[in-house]
Design brief:
This protein is of the alpha/beta class and about 500 residues long. The protein has helices at about 65-70, 80-90, 115-120, 140-145, 155-165, 170-185, 210-215, 295-310, 320-335, 355-360, 370-390, 395-400, 420-430, 445-460; strands at about 5-15, 20, 25-30, 30-35, 45-55, 60-65, 75, 100-105, 125-130, 135, 155, 190-200, 220-225, 230-235, 245, 260-265, 315, 345-350, 365-370, 405-410, 475-480, 495-500, 505. It folds into three domains: about 5-60 and about 470-505, Urease, subunit C, domain 1; about 70-165, Diaminopimelate Epimerase, Chain A, domain 1 (Roll); about 170-460, Metal-dependent hydrolases (TIM Barrel, Alpha-Beta Barrel), CATH 3.20.20. The longest helix has 19 residues, at about 370-390.
């Protein structure tokens, strides 16, 4: 046997307990052919000495928004006055919609209104809030939304109504956005992304979204979660027990190793940044306790029907009240029709009361967490949750101690997408402002790496082919300039190279 590639001089942390460290990795036909002595004597078409560099399995980001992330919009990130934002928006080129992002209402001198934006003319204008759960629009847009009374600030369903006025994007536009995102994630060592909800909802781009991924032929692996809003009634044989499905009955698992269908995505509440995450007790210092995203009937039906139709579910639930709802509905679904290894996920799983941990474990649910939310916004979130609840946010240690598999993700572009930054946060639990956020939830470096490799592979039902450098698995790996286990600045470790299926896709 002749290998395609032999990597020597590695300090590989394989994440495979059967062979945890390796200095030589043999690659053949896109897969790991063997490690160390298994391949040491085999000839190879190419041999590369990595000079003792650290090698990890490629990072898997279990929850991203690639099209949204790659979209070129006017960026107002960091601007804090109405005058600054308006001045930046005035630079929008072209004609038609002005699309902007990066607005952070919490840091503004005063909230921006439609009247402020009207000064810019009569092009429809949509400025997305950083949270993804709100936006500001001008009067041109408001006029097209009869029944909505607003000074320009729209959240959740009203935001969705404004958003749908802009849709759809063309396939060519989406393909370009996807390539831009793939370039970014590869540079950070990510080899696979799960796209958190195509086809409908706030972050949808087109009813043909899946076709864009197919056309794009991306250099990373992608799994597509499908919005539960796309489910529609089907006339299947009653013996199948499936009342709603997507066209052709496609569901979780369809596709190949480069592009596949993942979970059915549904939203049960909003987010902490927009104060729309649904809590059992109000946000500190207010009487607002957030809100559920939809009617309970709609959400419950989506969970039951999706479960019955064979989908893995990815249930967006951030506040503890939304998580209660998700737990109850999944328990009901499992009672009606037990599905072993259904592997339903809770996206974000942001505020978990102590009494919810055991239920999450018992139902085999996977929290898909975003550590960089707390790195970026932990100071703010700690204040709005108050002293008692702040330590319950985006847990790590408690999940692992309950035997719960944790999956790492970024929700890019909602927060910084770097897996190394997320890993550093999971270990140190320090916000960018230096605040300790739930320090008791800290986990070890190896556990954090596991969350971003095997854990996220498991959440995407791909652990048999991804997540560790194990002979037979796909040869996705990242080469780092330092060892995260001994580094005291994990987020700053350079990503030297990223390989997907044994092919070099990014190099520093
Ligand atoms: Zn998301």
């Amino acid at each position: 046997m002749r290998l395609d590639l032999k990597l020597t001089g590695c300090r590989a942390l394989t994440m495979d307990p059967a062979h945890p460290a390796a200095h030589t990795i043999g690659i053949w036909q896109g897969r790991v052919a063997g490690l160390d002595e298994q391949v040491a004597d085999l000839p190879a078409a190419e041999t590369v000495d990595l000079g003792n560099a650290v090698v990890l399995p490629g990072f898997i980001d279990a929850h991203t928004h690639l099209a949204w992330n790659g979209r070129r919009t006017i960026d107002v990130t960091g601007l804090t006055t109405v005058a600054q934002v308006v001045e930046r928006l005035a630079q929008a080129p072209g004609n038609g919609w002005i699309e902007a992002s990066g607005y952070d209402r919490r840091i503004m001198d005063r909230p921006l209104t439609a009247a402020d934006l009207d000064a810019l003319g009569d092009r429809p204008l949509y400025l997305a809030d950083l949270s993804g759960h709100a936006c500001v629009v001008n009067s041109v847009v408001l006029k097209q939304l009869p029944g909505i009374t607003s000074d320009g600030w729209l959240t959740e369903n009203e935001q969705l109504a404004a958003r749908s006025l802009r849709l759809p994007y063309s396939l060519d536009e989406i393909v370009a956005e996807l390539h831009e995102s793939a370039r970014q994630v590869l540079a950070e060592g990510v080899t696979m992304c799960a796209e958190a909800g195509i086809g409908a909802g706030l972050i949808a781009s087109s009813p043909l979204e899946a076709a864009a991924y197919q056309r794009a032929q991306l250099p990373i692996r992608v799994q597509l979660m499908v919005s539960a809003h796309v489910l529609h009634p089907v006339d299947a044989d009653p013996a199948d027990g499936i009342s709603r499905a997507i066209d052709l009955g496609l569901h979780t698992g369809f596709g190949d190793d480069m592009l596949s269908l993942g979970a059915l995505k549904l939203w049960t509440d909003g987010g902490m940044m927009a104060r729309t995450a649904a809590l059992t007790e109000p946000y500190a210092g207010s009487d607002n306790a957030g809100q559920l995203a939809d009617t309970e009937e709609f959400m419950r039906a989506a969970i039951l029907d999706g479960h019955h139709a064979g989908w893995q579910l990815a249930i967006h639930a951030i506040g503890d009240r939304a998580i209660d709802f998700a737990l109850d509905a999944v328990a009901e679904a499992q009672q009606q029709r037990p599905r072993h290894d259904a592997r339903h996920r809770i996206e974000h799983c942001g505020l978990v009361r102590p009494d919810q941990l055991e239920r999450i474990a018992a139902l085999g649910l996977i929290p898909v967490v975003q550590p960089t939310f707390l790195w970026a916004y932990g100071d703010d979130y700690s204040v709005i949750m108050g002293e008692k609840r702040a330590p319950w946010m985006y847990r790590g240690r408690s999940f692992l101690d309950h035997g719960i598999t944790v999956a790492g993700s970024s929700d890019r572009p909602v927060a910084d997408g770097s897996p190394l930054r997320a890993i550093e946060f999971m270990v140190r639990r320090r916000s960018s402002g230096g605040r300790a956020v739930g320090p008791d939830e800290a986990i070890t470096v190896e556990e954090a790496i596991r969350a971003y490799t095997l854990g996220s592979a498991y959440a995407c039902r791909k652990e048999h082919v991804l997540g560790s450098l194990t002979p037979g698995k796909l040869a996705d790996l990242v080469v780092l300039g330092d060892d995260p286990r001994t580094s005291d600045a994990i987020a700053d470790i350079p990503v030297l190279a990223t390989m997907v299926g044994g092919n070099l896709m990014a190099q520093r």
